[in-house]
Specification:
Ribosomal Protein L9, domain 2; 3-stranded antiparallel sheet; 49% helix; alpha+beta; Ribosomal Protein L9, domain 1; single chain
Length: 194
Amino acid sequence: MKKVKVVLTKDCKELGNVGDVIEVRPGYARNFLIPKGLAIEERNAERYKKLREEIERQRQEAITKAKALSNLITGQELIFTRKVGEGGKLFGSVSQNDVISALKEKGIEIQPHMVRLSEPIKTLGKFSVTIRLHSEVQTSVSVAVVDEGSKKQEKAAKSQKKESKQEMAQTKKASSGKKSEETVKKTKKKESKK
């Protein structure tokens, strides 16, 4: 079947980004892309050279922004705590929205369609989630899913260590206090003998 070339004037999730020249079926271009302002025919784009230059400028700006965002995201590690049942299966899961909200808490805002997570994470472990910021810019973020119970155990162990350190410090103070009392008594006895 014959296809026509169109130039995208807006980013389209499945088709491409601003300025991309793509081939689509004539009906799709005529009935959907062009009326919605998502694309213009390539032959018209040649007539409107200024529009094409503007589209290319916007595309370059989008790539620059995506690269800057990629630098912020690269190296980030997101840790999610979840309740775990028998066999290491999670109660619930880590979804695309969880990744987006965790990045947002770190001051990084991305769109839902940028996160490439084929299905929610339903097991414990470390995973790499791909984030496609632009058709030419892609990065990944490390996602760790840990047991909520293990976090509680770690906190309990830390608090026990702190308590034991405090007890040891108090014992040392008390024992040093006893030694000083003993030395005071010995000095008093020596003075009284003289």
